[in-house]
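[Discussion] Sanity-checking designs against the backbone

I'm trying to build intuition for which residues belong where. Below is a structure token string of 229 positions. I'd appreciate it if someone posts a full sequence so I can compare it with mine line by line.
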């Protein structure tokens, strides 16, 4: 049983650039892992295939044992509800409050106002953001803004959280704080896949690491194989 499985996945962009070649791996329920590699190695492409922002040229991506090639049209939006996404730049709506930003995915799903309020407050509480519910993103620190982005990605209880360089703009202390937050998610049943090129941070986390090199899966390192940071 896996939450996510890549079977011999290749991706060639229109114009001929090959971003991924024959990549295979599986993610277990409640597992947290990293994907790393140099700039251009294919990390973002791998995450885009999971969100159906791109499609593989060859091979199969299975999500919750379902072949994503069969997920088309209106079913794409349904699939995306199961994948929470955290970006390097939090991509918050700057003219909406923290609470409104976090509630947005639930509004889009047509949830009732009362239920949205409850879920948003519980999520803000969990991430230590409850006192900032009515603040605008511009009134928050960089670390708080990133936590709001994470709250928004988690509010609809996704099966998998994917994060693309989520600590790219943060100092080491805040990065560690965000990573600790991610590391607590598997206990609640959410699997986590983080793309990062911060090797120091990755080593400290002691989680499984997929290493991409020019689109190929060069290594799949178990936590116990990681050298001390
Ligand atoms: N839409 C696209 N069209 C053509 N080529 C693309 C497209 N998106 C990415 N590429 C190419 O595919 C390769 C992999 O890109 P990708 O963004 O997945 O790498 P990455 O590991 O995430 O890099 P970075 O760390 O710099 O974000 C790169 O050579 C890139 O130029």
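Best answer:
Here's mine. Compare freely.
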């Amino acid at each position: 049983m896996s939450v996510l499985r890549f079977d011999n996945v290749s991706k060639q962009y229109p114009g001929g650039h090959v971003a991924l070649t024959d990549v295979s791996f599986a993610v277990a329920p409640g597992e947290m892992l990293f994907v790393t590699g140099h700039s251009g190695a294919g990390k973002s492409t791998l995450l885009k295939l999971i969100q159906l922002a791109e499609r593989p040229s060859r091979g199969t991506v299975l999500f919750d044992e379902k072949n994503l090639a069969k997920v088309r049209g209106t079913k794409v939006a349904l699939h995306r509800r199961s994948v929470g996404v955290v970006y390097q730049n939090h991509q918050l709506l700057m003219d909406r409050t923290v609470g409104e930003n976090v509630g947005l995915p639930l509004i889009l799903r047509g949830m009732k106002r009362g239920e949205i309020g409850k879920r948003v407050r519980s999520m803000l509480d969990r991430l230590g953001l409850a006192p900032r519910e009515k603040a605008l993103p511009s009134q928050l620190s960089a670390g708080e803004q990133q936590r709001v982005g994470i709250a928004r990605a988690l509010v609809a209880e996704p099966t998998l959280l994917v994060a693309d360089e989520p600590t790219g703009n943060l100092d080491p202390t805040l990065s560690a704080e965000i990573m600790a937050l991610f590391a607590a998610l598997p206990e609640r049943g959410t699997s986590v896949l983080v793309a990062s090129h911060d090797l120091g941070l990755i080593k400290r986390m002691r989680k499984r690491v997929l290493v991409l090199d020019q689109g190929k899966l060069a290594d799949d390192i178990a936590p116990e194989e990681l050298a001390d940071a």
